[in-house]
Amino acid sequence: MREHDIEPIRGLPGDLPPGEAILWQGAPDARVFARSALGARWIGGYFAALVAWAMVSGTPLGALLTAGFGVLAVGLAYGFALLVARSTVYTITNRRVVLRIGVALSKCINLPLSKVDSADLRNLGGGFGDIALVPQGSSMLGYLMLWPHARPFRLAKPQPMLRALADAADAAAILAKAAAAITPVQQRSEAASATQAPRPVLGAREAAA
What is the distance between the alpha carbons of residues 115 and 167, in angstroms, rounded to a whole number? Predict the structure, then answer.
């Protein structure tokens, strides 16, 4: 029996509470994930340059060995990407975003929509894309805990990322609509307190990184 076989609902740590419903589920595409998250193309290009340099330098044996290491490195990147794709489930409900992640050790990251300020959509071409979630205020999430499902270079304030989605634009639209449905309820609740200000509506926007 695999660990995920005992999930009450695929991708979720428990049954849904009353009033909560799944709006969308998805997972990374392994090939796109290898290229966009692990830099498989850069790895291949780096070793190709080393092989070319070895050939120009007149060391064919060195070129052959370098080519072998290059194939191994790229193969490991794509192999890891395949494991990530098989073990990852992203879920959007009408109340939260859940990331079930982890190749060796599975964990679930729950992000209430009321605690997400914005969602940045990055187009990867071919209909694929990433969605970075910007948490509201301080977050207990660690970059290493999220990696490779973390927005690059956001070490101080890690941002969870739904990576290499085949239907990223559709997922972003669903996320924005779910957040917009929650916002009026939260604003009415916050209106009772003079110390709190209404939260802006979450929306998906194009991002360069």
Answer: 24
